[in-house]
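A.,

Following up on our hallway conversation. Structure tokens first:
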């Protein structure tokens, strides 16, 4: 009996520590390279905020972004939540463009017409000075390096039912094939479980969120316990993955919910350092 209680106590302590370490925002750096770049580029990924508030007027989150010294901020969806008040998202959206140019695509929670309609979401994001990529692309230059940044709306338009995959393929076709591009191409698409579809179109980099890091991790053993539309032990919970000739970054996101605690799964801002590769 004593051994059982001791084991139970240790398990509770282990989980409690795992919960505590998941609170501070972590800057998680990934180093990539490409022969298409003439100078290095530093990109911050802010995903799945779900209107979570970090300090007064989002100053903790914004401080982390400034600390990253990023050239760009990419937002692959779910900055706004379909249930939480908009305040946290609006505080972040209104201040982020002062740090670096921002690019955004919708996530599944922003395509649910509860607090605010999908079109109102995009209108509000644009009002903040952020570029909305809904089957659109934009080419920019950073220190002489050209980047083409693309994005698609999340395909889930109605409640919790997936729309036809063929519609998502059509969204990709609207953007066009990127295999022949001489510029470094980036796709913002919320769902990492659809990476096989996205990779067919020849992007150099795909940036996603949605999986929330699998919610629960056991470092060195389980990278993620459960993720939406991936189920138990998701293949793409969070991190750097390779799909065909495309690199996929899946953010573990910034969402905090009391009823879905994160265990050994810190909220994060992935920082992508993309360097020139000698030809």
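Then the amino acids I'd put at each of the 279 positions:
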């Amino acid at each position: 009996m004593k051994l059982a209680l001791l084991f139970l106590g240790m398990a509770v302590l282990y989980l409690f520590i795992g919960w505590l370490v998941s609170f501070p925002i972590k800057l998680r750096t990934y180093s990539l390279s490409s022969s298409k770049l003439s100078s290095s580029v530093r990109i911050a990924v802010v995903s799945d905020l779900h209107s979570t508030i970090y300090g007064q007027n989002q100053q903790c989150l914004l401080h982390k972004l400034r600390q990253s010294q990023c050239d760009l901020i990419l937002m692959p969806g779910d900055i706004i939540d379909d249930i939480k008040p908009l305040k946290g998202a609006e505080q972040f959206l209104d201040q982020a463009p002062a740090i670096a140019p921002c690019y955004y695509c919708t996530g599944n929670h922003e395509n649910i017409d509860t607090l605010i309609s999908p079109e109102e979401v995009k209108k509000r994001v644009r009002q903040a000075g952020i570029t909305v990529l809904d089957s659109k692309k934009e080419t920019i230059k950073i220190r002489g390096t050209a980047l083409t940044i693309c994005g698609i709306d999340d395909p889930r338009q109605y409640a919790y039912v997936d729309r036809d995959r063929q519609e998502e393929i059509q969204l990709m076709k609207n953007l066009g094939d990127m295999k022949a591009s001489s510029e470094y191409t980036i796709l913002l698409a919320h769902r990492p479980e659809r990476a096989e579809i996205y990779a067919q179109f020849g992007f150099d980099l795909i940036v996603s969120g949605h999986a929330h890091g699998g919610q629960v991790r056991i470092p060195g053993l389980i990278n993620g316990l459960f993720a939406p539309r991936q189920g138990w032990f998701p293949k793409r919970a969070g991190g750097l993955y390779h799909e065909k000739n495309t690199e996929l970054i899946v953010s573990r996101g910034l969402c905090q919910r009391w009823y879905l605690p994160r265990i050994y799964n810190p909220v994060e801002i992935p920082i992508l350092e993309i360097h020139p590769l000698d030809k």
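The first helix runs from residue 2 to 20. Curious whether your intuition agrees with the design.

B.
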